[in-house]
């Protein structure tokens, strides 16, 4: 295969957004007739790399953006997705980026409909669409509205559209996340056919089984940097997961390992939170989980394994359709995050910017937000009390700048995360669910947040700590629950666990350790 | 065999019923079909209460009285299909009547004045579109600014009503194309229907038109599919500006005067007509023919109020208000079911 010249060669690609270096000197190449997987956790830079290749981000626009893209040996620079498409690079994006308000045929042909007498030739358009659909063995009415079909069908329609552009390179960004097993098999059949025709296919998925099944070669990114390019057949799953998740930095290793001994855990103690067969169709399989007062429970697993989904159910954002949740001995009825909060369960989202802080408000306003909402808007917190709260949390969490009037947008990621933590601490929850609280923040802030979690547990608060970084889960948790492919595969006491034993469970789902 | 033949008509009937019900609950066709049924129902009510309501002259007069509104609604349809809104059309209409009246008064020829107005209003639309696109300003605010600007310029031209005596305008206003009897239409009706025809062809048989629908369905998706989203978004405001200018010209044919205070609130009539005509305010679904139906519904309600004689004309507004509420709820229900 290496005898051939690569069809895509990206060299030294760097792309920055304000405050973030999304890609840092990444090299990437693809050969014709191969399926190439791009792997990495959230924020690794996968989407950015794809968008650089498909012309959504122009490489030479920003001062900090640089790099070179060769397509079939020629240097290219796309001013937009249309140009990339014309050059033979087609993309099927993660969320189906088609138009539900138009017909199936139109979604396939939009922008390049055959024309007759100066107008669109609808007959020819339909005929061409039917041909393409037939190639994918998809028997649907091309005149029907796209929005009336299932996501799986929409996905295949998106691929039909991509194929029609005479693609040399087909990019499939998380194409299987909404498909069931049969549909995935159908998709893989199509991928293999295209591969046989010499199309280079970039396959992005967080399902490792699928990566191993379909791809010939893979590239791993982490924190915007290239980790390496490997032949799929030559890399062990365990090694792969290790490369995706990465090693902690030395400074964190120096942190002493401080696990809070669980305050209880004996059979007679009533758990603070007890979930029994709690599940939600299409989200996670039924889960049993207990959290006792004053303990830190780690929730580990790869991206998309169901970590966040479980947290969202526990905190009342999504409703479960099976099982029950008992908080402090009494059953909890799920209505809203507000009702969960009333029972003392607070959730700090992994999506800090969209679901966490309010960027345009001050540090003070962000900190008192949840407390004020809890009290109701008819009982305003006095200015004096707000100042006290803000100042005390700024000191306690070492928020920089130490200015209650600073606009949160201008703070660094780590300080934004601390402001978010302060907001939830201000309502004094009994169980704090922290979803990726240390992602994308610098090492110093990371260590401070880890220390804080330990202190909170020592003072009797329970913490459900979700993180993709196994070292930090190991360092903080007294018990670790592991999710894999949307089910809870292990719930283990953290006494002699190591990163390797956790990796084994995450990669293979094997229960090598003793179950609690 | 005998069982088959006896059940066949039942099956066919059921299938037809299924088709009809799915058309009525589709977000694409549902609202338009409801509007059509509504229009027929209003005519039936009118016909049962008043003699001579369902007659050629009454129907044709609907078009004569509302030709300018049809043109406005066509332009508005383009804008709303992309998910935008244009609040400036009423004021721009008034401005074009003022420009026409004052230029004709100072001796300009109609053959210069009319193209000039169309160019000016298109350029105004272009500026609004560029403002929306380049500075990412909400269409609501950008067109609100254009509305005040245009209305203000009217007063700069003149505070008083200016009457038009230009022979071309007068003859266009008075010429009636007769179908025999008391049935006749004006040139404005022909122009308005031509605009509708062109708009229909553009929306359904050109890439520009399909891009308009694509933007309403999902701007981001359209962009990722490689469609000229930016250009099209600006262009719909040019089209709306052009239509406002043309509607202004038709309005002068109708009133033979220019007046600063004319057509206050007409932009809202146009929006109401488009919405009642089945175009979703969030964009993506709707037909220009639906907007024509919407104008006719408004016109017919007006006619009924006139026939009633004792009712204040404000009852038109009350009915339109109620209808709008019903239609917006209907749209929500139809689109929510599909999600």
TrEMBL record, chain A:
<dbReference type="InterPro" id="IPR050107">
    <property type="entry name" value="ABC_carbohydrate_import_ATPase"/>
</dbReference>
<keyword id="KW-0677">Repeat</keyword>
<dbReference type="InterPro" id="IPR003439">
    <property type="entry name" value="ABC_transporter-like_ATP-bd"/>
</dbReference>
<keyword id="KW-0813">Transport</keyword>
<dbReference type="InterPro" id="IPR017871">
    <property type="entry name" value="ABC_transporter-like_CS"/>
</dbReference>
<keyword id="KW-0547">Nucleotide-binding</keyword>
<dbReference type="GO" id="GO:0005524">
    <property type="term" value="F:ATP binding"/>
</dbReference>
<feature type="domain" description="ABC transporter">
    <location>
        <begin position="8"/>
        <end position="248"/>
    </location>
</feature>
<keyword id="KW-0067">ATP-binding</keyword>
<feature type="domain" description="ABC transporter">
    <location>
        <begin position="265"/>
        <end position="510"/>
    </location>
</feature>
<dbReference type="Pfam" id="PF00005">
    <property type="entry name" value="ABC_tran"/>
</dbReference>
<dbReference type="InterPro" id="IPR027417">
    <property type="entry name" value="P-loop_NTPase"/>
</dbReference>
<dbReference type="InterPro" id="IPR003593">
    <property type="entry name" value="AAA+_ATPase"/>
</dbReference>
<protein>
    <submittedName>
        <fullName>Sugar ABC transporter ATP-binding protein</fullName>
    </submittedName>
</protein>
From TrEMBL, chain B:
<feature type="transmembrane region" description="Helical">
    <location>
        <begin position="29"/>
        <end position="46"/>
    </location>
</feature>
<protein>
    <submittedName>
        <fullName>Sugar ABC transporter permease YjfF</fullName>
    </submittedName>
</protein>
<keyword id="KW-1003">Cell membrane</keyword>
<feature type="transmembrane region" description="Helical">
    <location>
        <begin position="314"/>
        <end position="334"/>
    </location>
</feature>
<feature type="transmembrane region" description="Helical">
    <location>
        <begin position="268"/>
        <end position="294"/>
    </location>
</feature>
<dbReference type="InterPro" id="IPR001851">
    <property type="entry name" value="ABC_transp_permease"/>
</dbReference>
<feature type="transmembrane region" description="Helical">
    <location>
        <begin position="234"/>
        <end position="256"/>
    </location>
</feature>
<keyword id="KW-0472">Membrane</keyword>
<feature type="transmembrane region" description="Helical">
    <location>
        <begin position="112"/>
        <end position="134"/>
    </location>
</feature>
<keyword id="KW-1133">Transmembrane helix</keyword>
<dbReference type="Pfam" id="PF02653">
    <property type="entry name" value="BPD_transp_2"/>
</dbReference>
<keyword id="KW-0812">Transmembrane</keyword>
<feature type="transmembrane region" description="Helical">
    <location>
        <begin position="179"/>
        <end position="203"/>
    </location>
</feature>
<feature type="transmembrane region" description="Helical">
    <location>
        <begin position="87"/>
        <end position="105"/>
    </location>
</feature>
<feature type="transmembrane region" description="Helical">
    <location>
        <begin position="58"/>
        <end position="81"/>
    </location>
</feature>
């Amino acid at each position: 295969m290496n005898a051939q010249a690569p069809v895509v060669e990206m060299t030294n690609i760097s792309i920055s957004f304000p405050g973030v270096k999304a890609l840092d000197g990444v090299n990437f190449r693809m050969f014709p007739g191969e399926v190439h997987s791009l792997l990495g956790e959230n924020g690794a830079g996968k989407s950015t790399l794809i968008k650089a290749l498909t012309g959504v981000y122009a490489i030479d626009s920003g001062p900090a953006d640089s790099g070179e893209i060769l397509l079939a040996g020629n240097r290219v620079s796309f001013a937009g997705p249309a140009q990339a498409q014309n050059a033979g690079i087609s993309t099927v994006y993660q969320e189906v980026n088609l138009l539900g308000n138009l017909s199936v045929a139109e979604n396939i042909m939009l922008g390049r409909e055959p024309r007759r007498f100066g107008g669109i030739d609808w007959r020819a358009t339909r005929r061409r669409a039917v041909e393409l659909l037939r190639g994918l063995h998809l028997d649907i009415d091309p005149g029907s509205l796209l929005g009336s079909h299932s996501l799986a069908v929409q996905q295949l329609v998106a691929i039909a559209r991509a194929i029609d552009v005479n693609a040399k390179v087909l990019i499939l960004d998380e194409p299987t996340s909404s498909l069931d097993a049969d549909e995935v098999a159908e998709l893989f059949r199509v991928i293999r056919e295209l591969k046989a025709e010499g199309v280079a296919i970039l396959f992005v998925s967080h399902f490792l089984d699928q990566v191993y099944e379909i791809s010939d070669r893979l590239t791993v990114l982490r924190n915007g940097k290239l980790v390496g390019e490997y032949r799929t057949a030559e890399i062990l799953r365990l090694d792969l997961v290790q490369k995706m998740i990465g090693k902690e930095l030395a400074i964190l290793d120096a942190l002493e390992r401080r696990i809070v001994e669980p305050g209880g855990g004996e059979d007679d103690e009533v758990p603070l939170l007890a979930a029994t067969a709690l599940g939600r169709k299409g989200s996670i399989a039924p889960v049993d989980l207990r959290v006792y007062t004053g303990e830190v429970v780690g929730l580990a697993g790869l991206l998309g394994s169901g970590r966040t989904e479980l947290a969202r159910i526990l905190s009342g954002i999504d409703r479960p359709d099976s099982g029950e949740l008992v908080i402090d001995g009494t059953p909890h009825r799920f209505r809203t995050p507000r009702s969960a909060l009333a029972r003392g369960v607070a959730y700090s989202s992994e999506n800090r910017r969209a679901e966490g802080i309010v960027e345009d408000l001050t540090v003070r306003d962000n900190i008192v937000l949840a407390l004020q909402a809890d009290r109701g808007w008819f009982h305003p917190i006095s200015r004096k009390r707000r100042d006290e709260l803000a100042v005390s949390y700024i000191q306690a969490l070492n928020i920089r700048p130490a200015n209650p009037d600073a606009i949160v947008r201008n703070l660094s990621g780590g300080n934004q995360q601390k402001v978010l933590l302060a907001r939830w601490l201000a309502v004094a929850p009994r169980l704090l669910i922290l979803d990726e609280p240390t992602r994308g923040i610098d090492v110093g802030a990371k260590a401070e947040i880890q220390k804080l979690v330990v202190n909170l547990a020592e003072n009797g608060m329970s913490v459900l700590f979700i993180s993709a970084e196994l070292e930090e889960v190991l360092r903080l948790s007294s018990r670790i629950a592991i999710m894999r492919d949307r089910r809870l595969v292990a719930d283990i006491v953290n006494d002699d666990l190591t990163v390797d034993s956790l990796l084994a469970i995450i990669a293979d789902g094997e229960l090598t350790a003793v179950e609690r | 065999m005998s069982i088959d033949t006896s059940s066949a008509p039942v099956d066919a009937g059921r299938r037809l019923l299924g088709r009809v019900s799915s058309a009525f609950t589709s977000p694409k066709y549902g609202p338009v079909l409801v509007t059509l049924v509504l229009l027929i129902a209003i005519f039936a009510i009118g016909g049962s209460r008043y003699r001579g309501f369902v007659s050629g002259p009454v129907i044709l007069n609907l078009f004569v009285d509302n030709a300018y509104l049809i043109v406005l609604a066509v332009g508005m349809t383009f804008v709303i299909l992309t998910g935008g809104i244009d609040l400036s059309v009423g004021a721009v209409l008034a401005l074009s009547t003022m420009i026409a009246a004052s230029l004709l008064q100072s001796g300009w020829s109609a053959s210069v004045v009319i193209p000039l107005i169309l160019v000016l209003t298109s350029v105004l639309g272009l500026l609004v579109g560029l403002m929306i696109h380049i500075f990412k300003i909400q269409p609501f605010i950008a067109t609100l600014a254009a509305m005040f600007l245009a209305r203000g310029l009217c007063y700069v031209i003149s505070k008083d009503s200016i009457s038009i005596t230009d022979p071309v305008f007068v003859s266009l206003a008075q010429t009636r194309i007769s179908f025999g009897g008391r049935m006749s239409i004006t040139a404005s009706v022909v122009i308005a229907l031509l605009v509708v025809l062109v708009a229909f062809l553009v929306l359904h048989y050109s890439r520009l038109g399909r891009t308009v629908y694509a933007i309403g369905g999902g701007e981001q998706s359209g962009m990722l599919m490689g469609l000229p989203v930016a250009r099209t978004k600006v262009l719909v405001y040019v089209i709306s500006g052009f239509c406002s200018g043309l509607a202004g010209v038709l309005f002068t044919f109708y009133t033979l005067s220019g007046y600063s205070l004319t057509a206050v609130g007409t932009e809202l009539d146009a929006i109401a007509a488009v919405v009642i005509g089945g175009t979703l305010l969030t964009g993506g679904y709707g037909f220009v023919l639906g907007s024509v139906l919407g104008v006719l519904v408004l016109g017919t309600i007006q006619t009924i109020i006139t026939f009633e004689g004792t009712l204040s004309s404000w009852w038109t507004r009350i009915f339109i208000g109620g209808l709008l509420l019903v239609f917006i709820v209907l749209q929500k229900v139809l689109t929510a079911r599909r999600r």
